[in-house]
Design brief:
The chain has nine helices and ten strands. The strands form two sheets. A six-stranded mixed sheet has the order 1-2-3-5-7-10, with helices on both faces. The protein has a four-stranded mixed sheet with strand order 4-6-8-9. Helix 1 (25-37) runs parallel beside helix 2, helix 4 (133-143) crosses helix 5 (146-153) and helix 4 crosses helix 8 (193-227). With 245 residues, it is of the alpha/beta class. The protein has one domain: 2-enoyl-CoA Hydratase, Chain A, domain 1.
Length: 245
């Protein structure tokens, strides 16, 4: 589900889970383990197999699994995102194609984001799903005030549009994406590892404090809505519309 290769001390993690690297319980459970396994690497590059970075949460599994699946899934989603967000070494996203909804948040959890093609954006509200605290605050950290438009507008951006709001730091030709990400990761390794880790914790502290303050208040309501019969019906209709397109 997550393939690991090594280039001169940098670990490249490649999502390889079905045709669109959808985020389900199994893939998300593998994230912390994959990051722990490369703890000694100088840096991490995260990319996707095929032509998609990640199409986000596997909504079909949400519909089929209902409330029991959702109750297990949401905490695992938050843990996976925080494992990436909190990883002390440099983390670079090489966004090789569509990065939608949870896939967009995965990219946002990385320190630097490069993108070659496809679209990136947040579709949760369009699907009728509120944001859990962790992904919402990761997006807010990544793009600041632009988070309002991304979350509430539920639109998609091409690489140039994403670069214009700071969601993407560099647009790269597809054939150069991995090489460019490795160069960027190498550049981030110029600082001593402990210095980089401290700076990263300092930069992330406001987001972490908001997560700790808001999570206990908001996430029970998020769980209730994701688990509701109304949401199951609306997701079924949303998936039907996507299939017709």
């Amino acid at each position: 589900m997550i393939d690991t290769t090594e280039y001169d001390g940098t670990a490249v993690l490649t999502l390889d889970h079905g045709p669109v690297n959808a985020l389900d319980l199994e893939l998300l459970s593998a994230f912390p383990k994959a990051l722990d396994a490369v703890a000694d690497a100088r840096a991490v590059v995260l990319t996707g197999s095929g032509r998609t970075f990640s199409a986000g949460v596997d909504l079909k599994r949400i519909v089929e699994g209902g409330a029991p699946y959702v109750a297990e899934f949401l905490p695992v989603l938050s843990r996976a995102l925080l494992a990436l967000f909190d990883h002390p070494k440099p983390v670079v996203a090489a966004v090789n194609g569509h990065a939608l909804a949870g896939g967009c948040v995965l990219a946002a959890a990385c320190d630097v984001r490069l993108m070659s093609e496809g679209t990136i954006g947040l579709a949760e509200l369009a699907a009728g799903l509120p944001f859990p605290t962790v992904p919402l605050e990761i997006v807010r950290h990544a793009v600041g005030h632009a988070a309002d438009a991304m979350v509430l507008g539920a639109g998609r951006l091409d690489p140039a549009g994403a670069a214009a709001i700071g969601l993407v730091h560099e647009t790269v030709e597809p054939g150069r994406l991995l090489a460019a990400a490795l160069v960027r990761a190498d550049g981030l390794c110029a600082a001593p590892a402990d210095v980089y880790a401290l700076a990263k914790r300092q930069l992330h502290r406001p987001a972490r404090e908001r997560i700790e303050a808001a999570g206990p208040k908001d996430d029970p309501q998020v769980l209730r809505i994701w688990s509701s019969e109304r949401t199951g019906l609306s997701l079924g209709a949303y998936l039907s519309r996507l299939r017709r397109k």
